[in-house]
């Protein structure tokens, strides 16, 4: 029986049919990241700081993947809702084929500025050599990472989130197995973790491609056609471009913050990286709820059910609010054991506890921000989140400087800046959404219909 997450049921049931598999998929992805951090942490705080610092640079590089992945689930889901499954499948094939090419271009661009990045992060001597090798391996695997992200959006939009989990599980098995084998068994340095991650992404991409073809009711599209007539991807790019610009700006600011943080020592850089990974784990259900929101909003609008689309948003906000309660409790009550599990260096543990305590403030709003950004993407209007996001990004560095230098908080200034600005961003997004789209059922929503040409009269659905 073909998987179809859009089949009849309550709104909550539909949401969970999409969100749960995606959450499991994200758990696999973050599980690999956390496993890498755990094993690299055994090499010492300097090694962990390399992974953390270059993780921000890689995040900046990966943000360009949003061009082919950020809008895929909403566009494909909208087409499925309009009974245009064949066209939806064409978009899915093209997005998953173009994404690796985009990843290769982003990798070459990142390689060209890698020396500047290493200088900005303050790596010298042996640490610089280790960081250069690690970064080179990750950039080589960037095409597969881009492809895997695009495939995930495509499969979700087609109503087949479980298929995306298969790809992520394949990535997990490879990454989870190779990381300790290379680092502990063969004595590889930090670069061994990069090899495990790159090979895991490659395996996941291949499995995802196979899942996409297996779920089709007609022969797979030839590869030469997947990279032809790319104007068909315009609806995806129309949503993805502003979100990508927003993401790149945020990632650039984040990289600048880590470069600023490096002046306070490796312990602060490593602690900030540990906080990022741990909050990702604690916010894990949102990784399923947010894309499910975008997909269902697009699907409901495709069916002409505007009031149902708004109900999807409120349901999603309620769910992430419940999720946040447990994470906040963990960060406030037992931060010490959590930090010590990654690395037992006393300086790292001391700083890490303070950073996690501050992070509890932002965690209360993190899921809400992700859901609201997905909601705007679902209705095809990604401009408001971009405007708000750029404003928040512009605020972060000055705020970090004021807290760190003027208020004397030192390396903790970055943590305070990130979390306070996150609260502001979420509240503004909710306010804008309510003021523009949430007043009445009859209020016209700005949707993506103008960017998606309707099927020709008499054409096959």
Describe this structure in words.
The chain is an all-alpha fold and 461 residues long. It has one domain (11-440). 79% of the residues lie in helices and 0% in strands. The chain has 19 helices and no strands. The chain has helices spanning 11-41, 45-62, 66-69, 72-81, 85-112, 114-120, 125-140, 142-157, 161-185, 191-214, 223-226, 234-261, 266-282, 284-302, 306-333, 335-342, 346-378, 383-406, 412-437. Helix 1 (11-41) packs antiparallel against helix 14 (284-302) and helix 12 runs parallel beside helix 18 (383-406). Mean pLDDT is 84; it is low at 439-461.
Structural class: mainly alpha
- How many individual β-strands? 0
Ends apart, CA distance between termini: 20 Å
- Written as H for each helix and E for each strand, in order along the chain, the element string is HHHHHHHHHHHHHHHHHHH
Shape assignment: globular
The domain tally reads 1
Average pLDDT works out at 84
Q: What fraction of residues sit in β-strands?
A: under 5%
Q: Biggest sheet: strands, sense, closure?
A: none
What is the tally of helical segments? 19
């Amino acid at each position: 029986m073909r998987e179809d997450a859009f089949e009849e049921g309550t709104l909550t049931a539909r949401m969970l049919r999409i969100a749960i598999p995606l959450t499991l998929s994200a758990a696999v992805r973050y599980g690999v990241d956390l496993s890498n951090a755990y094993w690299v942490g055994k090499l010492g705080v300097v090694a962990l700081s390399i992974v953390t610092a270059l993780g921000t640079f890689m995040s900046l590089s990966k943000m360009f993947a949003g061009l082919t992945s950020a809008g895929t689930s909403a566009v494909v889901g909208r087409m499925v809702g309009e009974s245009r499954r064949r066209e939806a499948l064409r978009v899915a094939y093209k997005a998953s084929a173009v994404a690796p090419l985009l990843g290769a271009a982003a990798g070459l661009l990142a390689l060209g500025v890698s020396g500047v990045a290493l200088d900005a992060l303050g790596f010298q001597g042996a640490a610089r050599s280790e960081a250069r090798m690690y970064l080179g391996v990750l950039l080589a695997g960037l095409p597969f990472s881009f492809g895997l992200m695009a495939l995930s959006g495509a499969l979700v939009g087609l109503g087949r989130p479980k298929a995306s989990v298969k790809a992520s599980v394949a990535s997990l098995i490879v990454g989870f197995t190779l990381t300790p084998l290379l680092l502990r068994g063969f004595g590889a340095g930090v670069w061994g973790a990069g090899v495990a991650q790159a090979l895991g992404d490659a395996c996941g991409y291949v499995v995802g491609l196979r899942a996409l073809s297996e779920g089709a009711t007609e022969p797979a599209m030839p590869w030469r056609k997947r990279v032809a007539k790319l104007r068909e991807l315009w609806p995806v790019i129309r949503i993805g471009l502003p979100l990508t610009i927003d993401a790149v700006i945020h990632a650039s600011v984040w990289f600048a913050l880590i470069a600023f943080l490096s002046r306070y020592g490796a312990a602060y850089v490593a602690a900030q990286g540990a906080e990022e990974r741990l909050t990702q784990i604690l916010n894990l259900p949102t990784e399923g709820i947010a894309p499910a929101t975008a997909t269902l909003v697009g699907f409901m609008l495709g069916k002409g059910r505007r009031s149902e689309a708004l109900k999807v948003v409120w349901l999603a906000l309620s769910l992430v609010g419940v999720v946040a309660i447990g994470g906040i409790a963990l960060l406030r009550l037992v931060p010490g054991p959590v930090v010590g599990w990654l690395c037992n260096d006393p300086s790292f543990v001391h700083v890490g506890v303070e950073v996690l305590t501050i992070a509890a403030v932002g965690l209360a709003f993190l899921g809400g921000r992700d859901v609201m950004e997905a909601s705007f993407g679902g209705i095809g209007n990604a401009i408001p989140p971009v405007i708000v996001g750029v404003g928040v990004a512009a605020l972060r560095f000055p705020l970090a400087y004021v807290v760190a230098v003027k208020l004397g908080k030192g390396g903790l200034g970055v943590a305070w800046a990130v979390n306070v600005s996150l609260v502001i961003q979420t509240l503004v997004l909710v306010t804008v959404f309510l003021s523009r789209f949430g007043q009445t059922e009859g209020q016209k929503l700005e949707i993506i219909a103008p960017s998606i040409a309707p099927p020709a009269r008499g054409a096959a659905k």
